[in-house]
Design a protein that fits this description.
By secondary structure, the chain is of the alpha/beta class. Helix content is 38%, strand content 17%. It has a seven-stranded parallel sheet, sandwiched between helices. The termini are far apart. Bound molecules: NADP nicotinamide-adenine-dinucleotide phosphate (NAP). Residues 9-16, 35-37, 56-59, 83-86, 106, 130, 132, 178, 180-181, 183-186, 195, 199 line the site of NADP nicotinamide-adenine-dinucleotide phosphate.
Length: 229
């Protein structure tokens, strides 16, 4: 396998944590694991020599600068998986200004600024945005998820716009709209619901897609779900 430098946001738990474990299995890959909770990541990945853990907060105003600083330790980035996400589950009338701003910062503008910070390190790269079926046009929608699902829809739109602007380059961006996988976030969105897919199973698909799909597609928005939600 070709050794790659892979950046994964939201690596402290859920799908991101599983992605780190699976992609680190090939020792040729170098994995940069990003989230706010460095202690948790360092404990989780302490046996993995090809993983480094970095503090990263998408809710701050300096996401581009944080990204540049973290990536100053590497020559190139081959794969960026924008996996971190934030979910508010509240009736529409009760969603606060801060809920809207935080959702859009973490799920949209923070992702765009992460990409801006990573671009100088990218020549031949695949960027994979992790959206949700809730943000996929025409999908079944659920009450309480307005702030979250509209922000995930914006992430889909960003994917198409980026692909157009970078179509002459060797930097591809695609977007996966995930269905339910058993994580803390799913429990917050659908309390008590048992997903048919584990975080590890979902990570298996995303890892394979991140490594291989650049050859086949760019600017694509792909639903990854057999269930509702
Ligand atoms: N699970 C599902 O059923 C499902 C369905 C559709 C889409 N998705 C999407 O899949 C992705 C992973 O979800 P998950 O279910 O694994 O979620 P999760 O278990 O809640 O994990 C979310 C991750 O995002 C990180 N994060 C949250 N706020 C952050 C911030 N301000 N700055 C940096 N990192 C932050 C968290 O790390 P820290 O708290 O340590 O910072 C954590 O590692 C998300 O984008 C989610 O929207 C999940």
């Amino acid at each position: 396998m070709k050794p790659r430098t892979i950046v994964i946001t939201g690596a402290s738990r859920g799908i991101g944590k599983e992605l780190v474990h699976q992609l680190a299995e090939y020792s040729g890959h170098r994995i940069l694991a990003l989230s706010r909770n460095v202690d948790r990541m360092e404990t989780e990945f302490e046996d993995l020599e090809n993983v480094s853990c970095h503090a990263f907060d998408l809710s701050r105003d300096d996401v581009k600068e944080q990204t540049e600083k973290i990536l100053s330790t590497v020559k190139t980035v081959d794969i960026l998986i924008n996996n971190a996400g934030y979910l508010v589950n509240k009736p529409f009338s009760e969603i606060t200004h801060n809920d809207f701003i935080t959702s859009y910062k973490i799920n949209v503008t923070g992702v765009m600024e992460t990409v801006q910070g990573a671009l100088p390190k990218m020549n031949d790269a695949h960027i994979v945005n992790i959206s949700s079926v809730g943000g996929y046009q025409g999908s079944v929608k659920f009450p309480g998820l307005t702030a979250y699902s509209t922000s995930k829809a914006a992430l889909c739109s960003f994917t198409e716009l980026f692909a157009e602007e970078f179509k002459e380059s060797d930097i591809a961006m695609n977007c996966l709209c995930l269905g339910a996988a058993q994580t803390e976030m799913l429990e917050a969105a659908f309390p008590g619901y048992q997903a048919p897919v584990s975080a590890a199973e979902m990570a298996e698909f995303i890892a394979d897609f991140s490594l291989n799909a650049k050859k086949w597609m760019r600017g694509k928005i792909i639903p990854v779900s057999l269930s509702t939600p």
